[in-house]
Design a protein that fits this description.
A 5-stranded parallel sheet has the order 2-5-6-1-7, sandwiched between helices. It has a two-stranded antiparallel ribbon with strand order 3-4. A two-stranded antiparallel sheet has the order 8-9. The chain folds into 3 domains: 198 residues, Rossmann fold, CATH 3.40.50; 75 residues, Helicase, Ruva Protein, domain 3, CATH 1.10.8; 72 residues, Winged helix-like DNA-binding domain superfamily/Winged helix DNA-binding domain (Arc Repressor Mutant, subunit A, Orthogonal Bundle). It is 49% helix and 12% strand. It has 16 helices and 9 strands. The chain has 376 residues and is of the alpha/beta class. Helix 1 packs across helix 2 and helix 11 crosses helix 12. Bound molecules: adenosine-5'-triphosphate (ATP) and magnesium ion (MG). Adenosine-5'-triphosphate (ATP) binds next to helix 2 and helix 11.
Length: 376
Amino acid sequence: MINKPFLFGTSVDEPHFTDRVTETRRLKLNFEHGVNTIIISPRRMGKTSLVKHVQRQISDPRIIVVFMDMYDCRNETDFYNRFASSVIRSTAGRLDRAMEYVKEFLVRLTPKVSFSPEANSEFSLSLGITPTNVTPEEVLNLPERIALSKDIHVVVCIDEFQQIGAFSDSVTIQKRMRGVWQHQHNVSYCLFGSKRHLMTRLFQSLSMPFYHFGEMMFLQPIPVEDWVDYITTRFQSEGKSISPQLASRICATVGNQSSYVQQLSWNVLVNTESDATEQILEFATDELIIQCSALFAQQIEGLSAYQMNLLRAIRDGHHHSFSSREIMAEYDFGTKSNVNRILNTLIEKEIIDTNDGKTDFSDAVFRLWFRKNISQ
Ligand SMILES: Nc1ncnc2c1ncn2[C@@H]1O[C@H](COP(=O)(O)OP(=O)(O)OP(=O)(O)O)[C@@H](O)[C@H]1O
Ligand SMILES: [Mg+2]
C-alpha cells in the first residue's frame, strides 16, 4: 500500500489516527458497561473515526460492536433493513452462521447474499423486510434477542443518525425505537451524526422521544500540541521539516477542524522542497480555499440579500444581538422580526452555528473564502 502522510475525506485509522486518548477511554468504558452515548460535534471533527477506533479496541469477545451508517436510509423500512442486516452480520461474523441467525430470529425471511468485489470474506445481506412481513418491534428487539440467546453484549453504533428526522412521521418512529430500546439490558447504543443542529434537536429537546437517552459527548477539537507532534513527525518521515510554530499555525488557520488540518498539512507538504515557510503556508491556504470554493459557492447560491448581509455582519466580527439598533443601522436585514428567521435558515443550511449565545460561521475555511470573495 502507498504511504499517505496526511489523510482526509474518509474516516481514519492508525497511523493517521492521532490523540483522542480521553475520548477513546471514555467511549470504550461506555461500550464495555452498556452506557448509551450520543456524540455531537461540528462537521469533520472525527466522530466516525473515533467510534471505529474504539470498536477496534474492544478485545472482549463477548462484546460485539455493530457499526451501521444511515446516510442513505430514506424511510422506516430502509432503516429496519439496514439495522437488521448489520446486527446479523456483525453478531454472526460468518456467512453460514448469519444464515442460521436469520432462520432463528427472523423466521419468515429469505435473505439474499452478495459479496464485496474485494474478495475477502465481506458479505452483505439483503433481508427484504417490508411493513408486512416483520413488525418494527421484532426488528428493534433483534439485537436483544441475539444477545440473550448467545450470551453476549451488543453495542449498536449508528452513524448519521440525524437522518431519522427526515423520515415521515419521524417522531412516532422515534417513540417506537426508544420505547423498545430503553427496555433492553444486553444492548447499548452509540448514536452520532454530522448535522449538529439536527442532532441537538433530537437529543436535547425536552419534547423529543430521545431526550436523555444517554450520555452526551461533545467532541472537542484535537489539541494543538498533538497536531504539532503529528504534523512534524509526518514531515520528517518524508525527509522534510516544519517548525512547531508553523505547524500550530496550520491548526489555527483552519480553526483546528481535524479534516482541514490534515488537508492543509498536505498542501504545505507538497509545496515544500525541504523546509516549510510562512510563504508556503500562505500559498497552501489559498490552494485550500480554491479546493473548497465550488462547494462554498453552491452553499450560498440562492441566499437572499438579507441572508448575505447577515453573513457579512458575522464576517465583520458581529456574533450576537443582530437585531440591535447599531447592527441594524449598518446591515439591511429588512425588518427586525426578520432576523431570527434569517438566523434559523442559515443554521438549517449549516452555514452558521450558534454556541453559548455566539453565532459564527460553522466552517473556518468558509470564513476565509467569504472574506476573500464576497465584496462589501
Ligand atoms: N483522531 C484523528 N486523528 C487525525 N485525523 C483525524 C482524526 N479524526 C478525524 N481526523 C481527520 O478528520 C477527517 C474526518 O474524520 P471523520 O470522518 O471521522 O469525521 P466526522 O466527524 O465523522 O465527519 P462528518 O461530520 O463528515 O461525519 C479525517 O479524514 C481526518 O482527516
Ligand atoms: Mg462521520
